Amino acid sequence: MQTEDFSELFPLFNTVNPETLEWLLSVADEHEYPAGRAVLMEDAWGNAVYFVLSGWVKVRRIAGDDRISLAILGQGDFFGEMAILDESPRSTDVIALSSVRLLSVHAQRFIQTLFKDPQLHHRMLQLMVRRLRQMNIRFQLRHQPPAVKLANSLVAMGENYGQVTDLGTEIFNIPFKDLADVADIGVEETTKIMEKLDSKGWIKIDRSRQVIHLINLKQLAQLAGKI
Fold it and tell me: At what angle do helices 107-116 and 18-26 cross, to 10 degrees?
């Protein structure tokens, strides 16, 4: 992948020195996984940083026999950056929701790059603060109605990873169990709300292509904004 294409796909690298980015890509490894495959196991956190070139993954918390989805990530996002700075064991894994292509950069090389390029270091701090703000928004939503929580999750995925089409903003057809986990509501509630949003014409689920069209993103955003 060309450095220009990579920096356009990943906002983290918008201001990075071209030579630094070229070196980083030269030491990166590409991976492909089918849907349902484990991308990163709980004992592998801290080994590398992963960049999502295409497809969708979920980050799950493991607690005994329970598996709870904490986040859904799509094209242009990355994961593993926190673990390379925090050497404590992780009780989470990453699973491919769709077929997915990733680039990985070994932890030591990525840390070297952060120290070499102050712009990348600063940009990384900005994005980590943004993720903390997103977590704070989820905390503020904890007492809100289920429809508000779910709309917030759909809008966030649409804004962060959606592709604009003639039918609206298109995202992957996230399984209702994972949507429910991320929105912190029940699966039954998720099913009812999604059916209602579909009947109102705000979304359309295309199971043949495994996508959800967010047809009326403006109305969804207004619903999500009731916090």
Answer: 170
223: its two tokens = 């619903």
**This prediction's pTM:** 0.91
Instruction: Kindly report, residue by residue over 32-65, the tens digit of the pLDDT.
Output: 999 999 999 988 888 999 999 999 999 999 878 8
Residues pairing with 33 in the sheet:
100
Domain-by-domain residue ranges, the chain? 3-139, 144-224
The tokens for 13 are 């690298």
The string of DSSP letters for 152-202 reads HHHHHHHHHH-EEETTEEEEE---HHHHHHHHTS-HHHHHHHHHHHHHTTS
Tally of CA atoms within 13 A in the half-sphere of 79 that contains its CB: 24
Distance CA 216, CA 196 (A): 13
Domain 3-139, CATH homologous superfamily name and number: Jelly Rolls (2.60.120.10)
What gap in Å lies between CA 160 and CA 147, rounded to an integer? 20
How far the first Cα of the chain sits from its last, in Å, is 41
At 226 the pLDDT is: 54
Is the domain covering 144-224 a CATH 1.10.10.10 domain? yes
